[in-house]
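Q: My labmate handed me this sequence with no annotations at all. I'd like to see what the chain might look like in three dimensions before we decide whether it's worth expressing. Could you predict it?
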Amino acid sequence: MDWGMKNRLSQLMPNGKCFFMPIDHGYFQGPTKGLERPAETIKPLLPYVDALFCTRGVLRAAIDPVGSKPIILRVSGCTSMVGKDLANEEITTSVDEVIRLNACAVGVSVFIGSDHEKETLKNLSTLVNLCEPYGIPVMAVTAVGREMEKRDARYLGLCCRIAAELGARVVKTYWCDKDFDKVVQGCPVPVIMAGGPKCETEEGVLEFVHDGMQKGAVGLNLGRNVWQSSNPVAMAKALQAIVHQNVSLKQAREIFHGAKA
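A: Here is what I predict for the chain of 261 residues:
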């Protein structure tokens, strides 16, 4: 691995672990609840996260360039919740723009099994070809769109392996309650857990995150389950402890309730 690639990954994943916070939801959902004013949402949470995942528009409009957390730039899009197919994405951002914004990595969605599987995998391949010469890592996001029933280990393992085979340096995927360790073991690059829709309980967030870390994930990319929480700072603090301090589930609960109090 060349120096630039290793340096960027070390910023994103100190000691090989990471807590990324995605605030890119507006690129297809518009002003998502809790993210209407991104700058206000993230301000109290920044001490606990390692990097932000966002679009160039929000980066310029809402994130202070002085002392910023490392940035993973969302570079796929062109679809919306009111459109016919969320999977019909294209690359939206040039490598020149990625470099200009000093992003540490880029992220692109792949929709395995959808009508646009080939196009989204081509987007990933194109980004890898463009970014590797500059030492910029590409994170593949194994998206499922509206088809949440696909979230089983066999499907997720397939998605992660394909993304890694095409050159993704990191893969973001969903946790599943059965055989998640097989998903991680079948992927030759680091696997990071997505949050997906907001969990019914805050306890549920801590449980699945702890389980996934124990089964081999290197970290998280959680947004709605943090900043839509009734206690976002307490949640961020507890999640950081799970990721970077390897605390038990009991200890994570204590940190959460202590911070909440």
